Each structure stands twice: as structure tokens, then as C-alpha cells.
Amino acid sequence: MPTDSIWSYTPALEHVRGADLTGFTVVARDGTAGHVDRQAVHHGMPHLVVDTGVWVFGRSLLVPVGVITSVDTAERKLTVSCTRAELKAAPRFRTDSETMDRVYLTAVGHYYSELPREERPAG
């Protein structure tokens, strides 16, 4: 996946652009990964900050919107194309200032764009 598209909603998910996803449960390919704590758009790179709860010892993750494969607004749940291990292995998110750091965001985008992708349903 090209790095620039990792920061864009897929065409099938354009309806959620601008929606408040705070509090939505984040589900990886192999189980629940946490919930959306907040979302941001800095440097044209929309992303979610996901609170992982206890499975990564309270660590938060920064997840680009391009890895979201589906959003169920009724269930307040979104699915990402990654496994929990892939999410955990992403560049470490330490402080809120990193959501505005172009170098950090670029590293995150590169990491996620290099992950193997499962085929997404046409939307």
C-alpha cells in the first residue's frame, strides 16, 4: 500500500470521514485491540490514538485511518486490517506531541504501508 494512502479512508469508508469515532472499539484481525481515545489530523495525516487497555500494559497506539477496513456505527466498532501483534510492533507512541511530529508520523505511515494486506471487499 502506498504510504500516502495509509492516511486516507478507503472509498468504501468515505461516509465516516469527519465522524467522531471516539470511544469506538477497535478490532484487529485476531481480536479486540482497544478503543479510540481520540483522533487527529496533523500534516494531512488523519489518525486515531487507540488506548489498548491491559493487553499492552496500558500503552496507546497511533493508527492511520487507512488501515480501517470497516466501521459499524450501530455497534460503535471499527475493524482494522492488522493483527494485534502488528499493532503492538508499530513505532512506539509515547507523547501527544508525536501526533504533530511529521517525522514520527512518516515512520508510522511507512510501517503500516509495508504490512501485508488482506484483500478488502469492494465497496
Automatic annotation (TrEMBL):
For biological process, the GO terms are:
photosynthesis, light reaction
| SUPFAM superfamilies, per the entry | PRC-barrel domain
GO cellular component, as recorded? plasma membrane light-harvesting complex
Q: What name appears for this protein in its UniProt entry? A: PRC-barrel domain-containing protein
- Origin species: Streptomyces gancidicus BKS 13-15
